[in-house]
Write a structure and sequence with these properties.
heterodimer; A: 447 residues; alpha/beta; Rossmann fold; four-stranded parallel beta sheet; disordered N terminus; B: 390 residues; 8 strands; 51% helix; 12% strand
């Protein structure tokens, strides 16, 4: 049954969301940001941090407000406000080819130093000045090189960097072999981060409270995964653009009970939509998978364009919980540091064993599994030239995927946080052509 | 037939097939493994009688095979290596060792076994940080590497054999440092391009033969007459550098006297400590002593005694001080940075390196481009910079 899409007052490029709960996600994020601002105003510490730095739980347990700098870049992109920051970093000499999140973040620091203060007219009023900065080597090089560069402009802000580069394993590495040493060293790094935070913020650390925070995080992530699982239903109850808005809540603010409540509310709404067979947009004619690749945050309308053609992005592999977070053996972890790291390691490398057997990458394995489980008629991969970690391998992925699946694949190219790299006409043209291919393939498959 | 030696042999290898010797050895039954970057402990390979060959690109070869399989928003150097491997140029290799050096290398590793499966292909998981966790992970990486090498070769890697190879490779490093000493002369008896080619030749030979070649080159240089300097003395900085960039700078009238580059000082300036337990020594040398910007050095406040205020200048000295040492030690009049497009490690460091050198009275020209050079455009900018120096 087609549902009339409610036309909200939206920013150009912003996606129109389907679910009520995801329309409220923005307010929850604003509440978290306001808390950070209030904390800073009352002299309490604020930490700049990136996702997957294993710091979210520590910060929550120590009452230190996080400012997620990557999230700031995506939000700036969504508000089309990050361009002056991008330009400032490029004028300073940072090449245009490096991560656009970093260029926004560094540009923010440059302008902050130049102005002497944060400009309230910046997107979201700018980022609060940090008491400390916490980075890591997890995921990609820009994650530690970016924060290393912040020191040019924030000379007196203590900076901690954790060695977590093996949290996500490379192709061919056996996760069972790697887990013990990765858990051992990563746990040590989180302990070091804890000592650093105590020293530089004056906040107290209570190990019992830390464990409770981790348990809260696990509950949030399991609640999130439950929502992802129900999205297998036909018709799909929630399109990908909705989950993008919810992603920060499940990933960055996962330690707060409000986040678990959010996903429970989401599940209730999705269950209702499934029971009533409510469709997304103009109705679901085709089911698409947003395979790996960071979406263009300045133009999330890309998904509404797909929906105009009856193509619903029912699932995405890049902004998801990947799988059930907790494992049966988790109760044996009495050490919260080891529990935290083990959970994260297993979740991040959930597809590694299967991928190694097929001699494909973990990302390809996810695309294969999700496209099958979510009954997808087409797969969209999004290349972002300033992000090598999430782009290189997409062309090869087409070849790898074709050995195991005949679902059509589209590769698009734009940028996650640089609106100057987004061409709306090209996006529309790509999608239109792709839908024709998807339609032909579907007709052939359905006989 | 007269045996070609020294720089003539280097020239023959560069203009012909530099891998002829490696192919001969392979035909004789030796195991020959290719590697990329400066993070692979070659001593562990040669201790098992494996011949390591550094895989480099070809900047004159259009990347037609890579174009079919991998994006171009990555380092064009490693893309070139991948491209010529797909074209069969490295078909003589029994296997590959690819370290976790940078994102471009890492992501290409994900594809390599799929497109070109070899009997032995190994990802050496070198951590990024020089800290306690990094050192522990490196120790484990070396332990696992040893196990896999022993499985593959069917031999045991003994500590004694390893120590012997450490001495041999240190000897090579010492010979290369000796070679670089000639570049301190007012009119260096060896050009930057000759040095670059010599390095390429040495990396394409077994270590003992590489040492022999270096002895020949040094003997030739001893006999070469001194000459007048032809132009400003330049330090070059950047990744790769096995393309014609150094030639280009010299064509513009400069003397390239020293470098901070992957195909340069980063390969040989530090020794493996022969007095230390060998794996600990390898760990320290290949991780902590790395000068590549992909390696994150211990920041100032991470020392045992936490400082209340952060010292940015101390951290810059730790990361970049060696570049200034080279510039001063080799009396460079200026520095030219050539950063390959989409190289995150070097790209992020551009402002820091540029400003640090300028603050210390070393003029800097910053260039960004591809592995394949846009020569005319670069020439214009280099010539203008050199004129300014003069």
């Amino acid at each position: 049954m087609a549902v009339e899409v409610k036309k909200d007052k939206v920013r150009p490029g912003a996606a129109i969301k389907t679910t009520q709960v995801c329309r409220e996600a923005g307010q929850l994020m604003k509440n978290f940001s306001a808390e950070a601002a209030a904390n800073l105003a009352s002299g309490n510490p604020v930490a700049w941090v990136m996702v997957a730095s294993m710091a979210e739980e520590l910060l929550a347990a120590m009452d230190i407000s996080p400012v997620f700098t990557e999230n700031y870049a995506t939000t700036s992109a969504a508000f089309s406000g990050g361009v002056q920051m991008l330009e400032s970093s490029e004028e300073e000499g940072y090449p245009q080819g490096i991560c656009s999140y970093a260029r926004v973040g560094i540009g923010h620091a440059i302008l902050r130093e130049r102005n002497g203060c944060v400009d309230p007219n910046w997107p979201l009023g700018g980022m609060q000045d940090p008491t400390v900065v916490i980075g890591s080597s997890a995921t990609c090089e820009p994650r530690y090189k970016w924060y290393q560069q912040l020191r040019r402009y924030q000379k007196n802000v203590p900076y901690f960097c954790a060695e977590l580069s093996m949290l996500k394993l490379q192709n061919g590495v056996d996760p069972d072999e790697a887990e013990p040493i990765v858990v051992k060293t990563a746990s040590q790094e989180v302990r070091r981060a804890k000592d650093f935070l105590i020293k530089h913020t004056g906040q107290k650390f209570d190990e019992d409270r830390f464990m409770e925070t981790i348990l809260q995080m696990e509950r949030t992530k399991d609640a999130w995964w439950k929502c992802e699982e129900i999205r297998r239903a036909v018709p799909g109850p929630m399109p990908f653009e909705d989950m993008i808005g919810a992603f920060p809540i499940g990933f960055m603010y996962c330690c707060y009970p409000e986040s678990e409540d959010f996903f429970q509310k989401m599940y209730a709404e999705l269950l209702e939509r499934v029971e009533k067979k409510l469709e997304v947009g103009n109705g679901e004619k085709y089911r698409l998978l947003w395979g790996w690749g960071i979406p263009p945050y300045s133009y999330l309308k890309i998904f509404n364009i797909m929906e105009e053609y009856g193509a619903v992005p029912v699932m995405g592999t890049s902004n998801t919980c990947y799988c059930q977070y907790t494992y049966d053996d988790f109760d044996r972890f009495t050490d919260p540091f080891e529990r935290l790291v083990t959970g994260r390691f297993r979740n991040t490398n959930h597809a590694a064993r299967e991928a190694n057997k097929l001699n494909v990458t973990g990302d390809v394995m996810d695309v294969l599994n999700f496209s099958r489980d979510y009954k997808c008629d087409g797969i969209v991969l999004n290349g972002t030239p300033s992000c090598r970690a999430r782009t290189i391998g997409q062309m090869a992925a087409i070849e790898m995927l074709k050995e195991h699946s005949d679902v059509p694949i589209l590769i698009m190219e734009n940028d996650m946080a640089d609106p100057r790299a987004v061409n709306e006409a090209e996006i529309r043209s790509n999608i239109e052509s792709f839908i024709q291919v998807v339609d032909t393939a579907k007709r052939k498959r359905d006989g | 037939m007269t045996k070609v030696t020294g720089l003539a042999r280097v020239q023959a290898m560069i203009s012909g097939d530099r891998y002829i010797r490696a192919k001969d050895l392979k035909a004789q039954g030796k195991l020959v493994l290719g590697y990329v970057c400066c993070f692979v402990p070659l001593e562990m390979l040669t201790a098992l009688d494996v011949v390591p060959i550094r895989m480099l690109g070809d900047s004159n070869e259009p990347q037609t095979e890579a174009d079919k399989h991998v994006e171009n928003i990555m380092c064009s150097f490693i893309r070139s290596v991948f491209d010529i491997d797909l074209k069969g140029r490295f078909s003589f290799l029994d296997g590959l060792v690819v370290p976790h050096s940078c994102d471009s290398v890492c992501m290409t590793w994900g594809l390599w076994p799929y497109y070109n499966k070899r009997p032995f292909q190994y990802f050496l998981n070198v951590p990024h940080l020089v800290n306690e966790a990094g050192e522990e992970l490196m120790a484990e990486a070396l332990r696992q590497f040893k196990v896999r090498l022993e499985q593959y070769t069917g031999k045991t890697l003994t500590d004694d054999a390893l120590r012997k190879e450490i001495t041999l490779h240190n000897k090579q490093r010492a010979l290369l440092r000796q070679l670089y000493e000639y570049r301190k002369e007012n009119g260096p008896r060896i050009t930057g391009s000759e040095v670059k080619n010599s390095l390429i030749a040495v990396m394409s030979l077994p270590v003992e033969e590489g040492n022999e070649l270096l002895h020949e080159i040094l003997a030739e240089l001893d006999a070469r007459p001194a000459r007048r300097a032809k132009g400003p003395r330049i330090l070059v900085y950047g990744p790769a550098m096995d393309n014609d960039f150094i030639e280009l700078v010299e064509e513009c009238g400069a003397e390239v006297v020293v470098d901070d580059a992957c195909l340069g000082t980063r390969f040989f300036m530090s020794d493996v400590n022969e007095k230390e337990e060998p794996y600990r020594a390898l760990n320290w040398r290949y991780l902590a002593k790395s000068k590549c910007p992909r390696t994150y050095k211990r920041p100032a406040e991470d020392k045992l005694e936490f400082k209340k205020t952060y010292d940015y200048d101390e951290d810059i000295e730790l990361r970049l001080g060696h570049i200034l040492d080279y510039a001063k030690g080799w009396q460079a009049d200026g520095a030219i940075m050539y950063v390959i497009r989409f190289c995150d490690s070097h790209g992020f460091d551009i402002p820091d390196v540029r400003d640090y050198l300028r603050k210390n009275d070393v003029p800097v020209l910053v260039l960004e481009g591809d592995y394949t050079l846009a020569k005319e455009q670069l020439k214009t900018r280099i010539q203008a910079f050199l004129e300014m120096l003069e």
